[in-house]
Every structure is written in structure tokens, then in C-alpha cells.
Amino acid sequence: MKKNILVTGGAGYIGSHICLELLEQGYAVTVMDNLANSSEKALRRVEELAGKKLRFYKADIRDRSAYDEIFSQNEIYGVIHMAGLKAVGESVRDPLAYFDNNISGTVVLLEKMKEHHVKRMIFSSSATVYDLTQRECLTEESPIGNSTSPYGRTKLVIEQMLADLYHSDESWSIVLLRYFNPIGAHESGRIGEDPEGEPNNLMPYITQVAVGKREKLSVFGDDYDTPDGTCIRDYIHVMDLADGHSKAVKKFERKGLFVYNLGTGQPQSVLEVIHAFERANNLKINYVIAPRRAGDAPKYYANADKAKVELGWEAERSIEEMCRDSWNWQKNNPEGYR
Ligand code: NAD
Ligand code: WQD
């Protein structure tokens, strides 16, 4: 029988790509999502691309009553937990919403997993858990904490909660995956990132300028201590990230608490991303230099050696491929899934 993976937040940007990868790798997929920031259309398109069906439950991870149906109707092998709110600025304005949704939601999910004897979890964590004031190149051993936002703190608290849970009961298998900056889309252009309103992140902003939805991109600061003065990040193709998850699922065969960075280790500045996008797509991006954005660290990127050694995973796609696939999605879906 196929192993059945429950993906919370599976209708979202990263989740939809992971569902597709899992179906293609021969897993059965069950999705739990309240569609707070996504569309069921993404899941229908995942099914079209895979030529296979998944099971969808429109439900909130905080809703205790939702789980009995999910766990009784499906023999869940393990959970990839991606459900959560992720807008950094919104989390500063409404921290309680983030604590409730992300932290309380995870507590309920874990209680229900335990009740149903499912003790395998991959958690969508983030490079934001690191203390970004101390190091630029981050290994899994780099200091954590000092988060600049309530969103970041939810990731840190959940990581610590999962470590405490593991130490209380070593029959769990828990994998913390710290993503760097996921961009790109499936090469078909059928699924991709579909932010509501004004994008918070760089790549969706660039693609919306390219498609004519926004007049110009503001580059937040060109006076940082970096070669071209703009901030440097480690952008990773969402399909490489999806591949990382299907490799991490193999860790479920062992009990333990594991943590991995998922990044390329090849940092890019904001201007380098803009120029890569222009080159890859033969387009010009209208941009202006604007003031710094509060809370931005000048430079950080992953050392992803541990994932290479222990998961046999390595990011393969270039920044040009990320830019090409982001644009392919945006130009074919100017209104996203709407
Ligand atoms: P997304 O918003 O597209 O996906 C999150 C999904 O979770 C959405 O479909 C949303 O409807 C769902 N959701 C939110 N709250 C829920 C709840 N209470 N119950 C059920 N479903 C709920 O975001 P994404 O970019 O795909 O991110 C997925 C995960 O990865 C998140 O946990 C995010 O914090 C984490 N992450 C994202 C990034 C990034 O840059 N995109 C980086 C690091 C970590
Ligand atoms: C990248 C660079 C901006 C928009 C965020 C979260 C982080 C993680 C990934 C979830 C920065 C610059 C951006 C724009 C710009 N998410 N920029 N103009 O801030 O590195 O990380 O997403 O866990 O927690 O903080 O990503 O895409 O917002 O910004 O100049 O309109 O692009 O200043 O240097 P960031 P981003």
C-alpha cells in the first residue's frame, strides 16, 4: 500500500509543489488546509499535472473536531506541517493571530497526531530562526534566536516545542527544515505563488511589475555593506525545496530529531536577482532605489552541506531557472488562481 502523507497547508505556494512531488514519487497525499491564503484550484492543478488524485479536507488545524475524520479515513504515515500564517509585517501588527494560528494550531495538531499514534513530522521552519545579526553563512549549529518579528518567533517556539516533545518521547521522528528564500514555480506554469494584494516578497513583486500589475519595484536600500549595496539572500527554487521534502520523508524510517538547512549556498543581491530576471526573460524591470525596510539583515545564506551528506539532497536549479519559472507562472496566470 502507498504511504499516505498528510500535508497541512498543502494548498499553499510551497505545499502545492510538495504535493505534486509526493504524488510523483508514489505517495498517497492527504491535504488539510483552511484556504486562508490559498485556492483549491491549486490542488486540482496538482492532480492534473500528476495524473493522480489526492484527498482534500477543508479544515483549520486548530479545529479539534476535524481530525477524527482525517485520521479514521486515512492511514497516515507521517505529516508535513506547512500550515501557518507567514506575513512578517502583518505579524508585527497582529501578533496574537500569529501565536494562535501557528503555535496553538501546531499544539492541537501534535495532540491529535499523538492520540492517533502518528509520530512522524516534517516542520516547515525558516532561516528566520537564526540570529541573523551574528553570522552570514549559516550552518545548523549557528546561534538561533533574536528574531525580528512575531512570525519568526512562532517558528522558533514551534522548533523548541518539537524538541521538547522529542525529548519526552523518543519514539517520534521529527525533521525541522529551515528554508531560505523559496522562489520559482513548477516548470509547467500551472502552479505558483499567488499573493493576495501587494506582495511582501521580492520575486512576486518583480513578476507583478513585469506583467504590468505594478508600476515599479522599490529596492529597499542600496547602502548596505555589500558589494552593490543591496541585501543578499539565498534564493532557492521551490521544486528543489519539494525534492528536499521527499528526501526528508525517508528520515521517517528512523526515530530522532533532525534539522537541515534547505538553501543553495549561492547568495544573490537584490540587484543581481533583478538582472538575472531581465536576462532570463529578456525583459526590463522598472525599479527605483527606496529607503531600507525595517528589520532586513544585510546578508545571510545557507551552508547546506548537512542536507547533502545526510539526505542526499542538493539544490540543482540556477537563479536564471528560478526567474524563468516565476515569470512563466505569472505571465500565464496574471490574476493567479482568481
Ligand atoms: P502559503 O500561505 O502559500 O501556505 C500556507 C498554507 O497554510 C495556505 O494554504 C493557508 O491557507 C494554510 N493555512 C494557514 N493557516 C491555516 C490553518 N490554521 N489551518 C489550515 N490551513 C492553514 O505559504 P508558503 O509560502 O507556501 O509557506 C508554507 C510554509 O512554509 C509556512 O509554514 C511558512 O511559514 C513556511 N516558510 C515559508 C517561506 C517562504 O518564504 N515562503 C520561508 C520559510 C518558511
Ligand atoms: C528579499 C530581499 C528585501 C521586496 C522573508 C521572511 C523570511 C522568509 C522568507 C518565511 C530583501 C528586498 C523585497 C521589495 C526589495 N519567510 N526587497 N523590494 O525578507 O529575505 O525573507 O521571506 O519564513 O522569514 O522574512 O524575503 O523576499 O521579502 O526580501 O528590495 O519589494 O528583497 O529588502 O533584501 P526576506 P523578501
From TrEMBL:
E.C. numbers: 5.1.3.2
SUPFAM superfamilies hit by this protein: NAD(P)-binding Rossmann-fold domains
Catalytic activity entry: UDP-alpha-D-glucose = UDP-alpha-D-galactose
NAD(P)-binding domain residues: 6-325
MF terms (GO), sorted A to Z: UDP-glucose 4-epimerase activity
The UniProt record lists the keyword Isomerase: yes
Assigned keywords, A-Z: Carbohydrate metabolism, Isomerase, NAD
Pfam families hit by this protein: GDP_Man_Dehyd
CDD domains: UDP_G4E_1_SDR_e
UniProt KW Isomerase keyword: yes
Pathway membership: Carbohydrate metabolism; galactose metabolism
InterPro entries attached to this UniProt entry: NAD(P)-bd_dom, NAD(P)-bd_dom_sf, UDP_G4E
UniProt cofactor(s): NAD(+)
Quaternary structure annotation from Swiss-Prot or TrEMBL: Homodimer.
Family the entry assigns: Belongs to the NAD(P)-dependent epimerase/dehydratase family.
Protein's recorded name: UDP-glucose 4-epimerase
Organism listed in the record: Christensenella tenuis
